Amino acid sequence: MKNIAIALHGGAGTIEKKSLSPEQDKAFRAALKQAVEEGHQVLARGGNALDAVELAVTLLEDSPLFNAGKGAVFTKEGKHEMDAAIMCGRTLEAGAVAGVRNIKNPIQLCRSIMEHSDHVMLSGYGAEEFALNHGLDFAPESYFFNKFRYEQWSEVRDTNIYQLDHTVHTDEKFGTVGAVALDAAGNIAAATSTGGMTNKRYNRIGDTPIIGAGTYANNATCAVSCTGHGEYFMRAVVAYDVSCLMEYKGLSLQEACEAVVNRKLVKFGGEGGLVAIAPNGDVAMPFNSEGMYRAKKAGEQQAFVAIYKDEQV
Questions:
Q1: pLDDT tens per residue across span 286-303
Q2: DSSP symbol at 269
Q3: Spatial distance between the Cα atoms of 239 and 261, rounded to a whole number of angstroms
Q4: Is residue 208 part of a domain?
Q5: Strands 94-100, 121-123: parallel, antiparallel or unpaired by DSSP?
Q6: Smallest Cα–Cα separation from 257: which of 290, 291, 216?
Q7: How far, in Å, CA of 87 to CA of 223, rounded?
Q8: Which residues does this entry assign to the site Cleavage (predicted)?
Q9: 196 contacts 35 by C-beta, under 8 angstroms
Q10: Is 230 annotated for ligand binding?
Q11: Does residue 269 fall inside a structural domain?
């Protein structure tokens, strides 16, 4: 099989074995495995990297387990506001949405914006109008209702506290989902999607839809999808910084990722991780938190699925 690969994440943070029941652990792994396997099948059939990352992220958006799409967390108003982005490493074209509501699969809207408009990022009502005009699927509020997410929000909705995904006291989990892929033609792509922070106000937007912060792809270097405390990832321009270290300093993918995630971010308190892929097939999945939902599959290798820090390939 040609040099193809895909990697994805479903969020990072304080994820310890004691925090998940055996049933929850099994459910998360099954969802990650399905997404990585189906994304890989696209590549194995000769499909392109964009199609692979879009499909993988769509599957994760359709799962209530992750803070994206169907599993998006509640805002201060009891609504759901979602951000997403997709980028093509071959052309450097990108599409992104911020603060959209009732869009069933924000990542598909990003692809449509990239391919059918002269813009990169659309937000709010404008993005929703674009989705309507281009036949994207909408979903009622009831589709996004999740009892667990609702209980999270209920604990803090009468306060000024916001929470990162399903935070419980000091337990922090950043529920962004994302994928990166390399196709048989040597092209790479990245896609990321999130529901943001529980109880967020003022139409807060994180790093996910910002090209170079939470999402980036360039055939000359790498494709990156981030998950973590978005404010830090924006300040550090994490995704582009990984690419820059490879382009201007000649670092390998792993070296660049380690420098940004485990040194630069850590220095000023940024928690989270990323998945990245290079045109030579190298894959990196670094994180500086207790865990990260992650999976990868390259060539004819078996899929690797992991959650906790001590799980290695």
A1: 999 999 999 999 999 999
A2: T
A3: 10
A4: yes
A5: parallel
A6: 216
A7: 8
A8: 175-176
A9: no
A10: yes
A11: no
The answer to whether residue 275 sits within a structural domain is: no
Known binder of ligand: residue 228? yes
DSSP assignment of 3-39: S-EEEEEEEEES--GGGS-HHHHHHHHHHHHHHHHHH
Q: Provide the token pair at 313.
A: 């390939």
d(CA 21, CA 31): 16
Amino acid residing at 167 = T
Which active-site residues does the annotation give? Answer: 176
Can you spell out the DSSP letters for 133-155?
HTT--B--HHHH--HHHHHHHHH
- According to DSSP, the β-strands at 94-100 and 223-228 are unpaired
Range of the domain at 128: 5-212+294-308
Is residue 99 situated within a structural domain?
Answer: yes
Q: Which residue type sits at 232?
A: Y
Per-residue pLDDT tens over the stretch 60-108: 999 999 999 998 887 776 778 899 999 999 999 999 999 999 999 999 9
4 is in an annotated binding site: no
Number of structural domains the chain divides into: 1
Check the annotation: does 10 bind a ligand.
no
Share of the chain above pLDDT 90, in %: 77
